[in-house]
């Protein structure tokens, strides 16, 4: 398997048909990756990309517009994400800020619903000084505001450890919001309460492509359907990532 993946990627770099995988692979990028060669990314077999749009209520990624347009141009399924700062404003305020600066969703068959990146505070208390009930309320405020504007609930990006610590392992969102779990290991591991499976898995913080490496929990047909509506259950479930087979893929 490792040999076949390596051979396929070598052909792609040489300009052959882009690599295809059973589980579509993706990347997420931000202004930390300002010069993405999107054609090479596409030829490496990447099928989707999440791109940072906003953070809090005072930051708009200076690379979002160009990254978004370039990902779309090469044919990647794409969407924006918002890095939350629950300590600076309400969830509704940040959802509106995100929507106004790249986070909107449209059922055009190529746009992913916006993602709420809710995780460890990079510059202060882990849970932003909020109690677990207050954090759940904040996420609900963001989620409901986004849903009212777009008709879709946002994807929730998080880690299981943070979710347990900062929401009390709330099961509130499992039936409404798709999950994008970050877990850098050979298996997905335990999911936050409420979710039976995950839509996306961020399995590595680096690889042969820019940004973080991700997998979609299903096949390409399922990913395309997902751009139109949320599938509560996908037709396949990732449980184990064979790292050797991914040694030269993302």
From TrEMBL:
Compartments where located: Secreted
Q: Which PANTHER family match?
A: LYSOZYME (PTHR34135:SF2)
Q: Which reaction does it catalyse?
A: Hydrolysis of (1->4)-beta-linkages between N-acetylmuramic acid and N-acetyl-D-glucosamine residues in a peptidoglycan and between N-acetyl-D-glucosamine residues in chitodextrins
Q: Which InterPro entries match?
A: GH (IPR017853), Glyco_hydro_25 (IPR002053), Glyco_hydro_fam25_subgr (IPR018077)
**Enzyme Commission numbers on file:** 3.2.1.17
Major location category of this protein:
secreted
Q: Which family does it belong to?
A: Belongs to the glycosyl hydrolase 25 family.
What protein am I looking at? Answer: N,O-diacetylmuramidase
Q: Which function does this protein serve? A: This enzyme has both lysozyme (acetylmuramidase) and diacetylmuramidase activities.
List this protein's GO terms for biological process: carbohydrate catabolic process; cell wall macromolecule catabolic process; defense response to bacterium; killing of cells of another organism; peptidoglycan catabolic process
Keywords attached to this entry: Antimicrobial, Bacteriolytic enzyme, Disulfide bond, Glycosidase, Hydrolase, Secreted, Signal
Q: What class of enzyme is it?
A: hydrolase
Q: Name one GO molecular function term.
A: lysozyme activity
């Amino acid at each position: 398997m490792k040999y076949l993946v390596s051979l396929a990627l070598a052909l792609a770099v040489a300009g052959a048909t882009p690599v295809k995988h059973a589980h579509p692979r993706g990347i997420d990028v931000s202004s930390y990756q300002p010069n993405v060669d999107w054609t090479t990314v596409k030829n490496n077999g990447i099928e989707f990309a999440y791109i940072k749009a906003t953070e809090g209520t005072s930051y708009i990624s200076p690379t979002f517009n160009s990254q978004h347009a370039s990902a779309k141009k090469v044919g990647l399924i794409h969407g924006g994400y918002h890095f939350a700062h629950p300590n600076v404003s309400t969830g509704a305020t940040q959802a509106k800020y995100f929507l106004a600066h790249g986070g909107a969703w449209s059922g055009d068959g190529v746009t992913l619903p916006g993602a709420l990146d809710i995780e460890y505070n990079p510059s202060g208390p882990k849970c932003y000084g909020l109690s677990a009930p207050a954090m759940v309320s904040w996420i609900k405020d963001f989620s409901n505001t986004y849903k009212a504007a777009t008709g879709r609930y946002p994807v929730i990006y998080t880690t299981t450890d943070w979710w347990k610590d900062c929401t009390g392992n709330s099961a509130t969102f499992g039936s409404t919001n798709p999950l994008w779990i970050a877990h850098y290991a050979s298996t997905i591991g335990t999911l936050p309460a409420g979710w039976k499976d995950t839509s996306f898995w961020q399995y590595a913080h680096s690889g042969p492509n820019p940004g973080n490496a991700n997998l979609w929990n299903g096949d390409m047909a399922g990913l395309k359907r997902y751009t139109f509506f949320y599938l509560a259950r996908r037709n396949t479930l990732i449980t184990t990532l064979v790292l050797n087979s991914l040694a030269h893929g993302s």
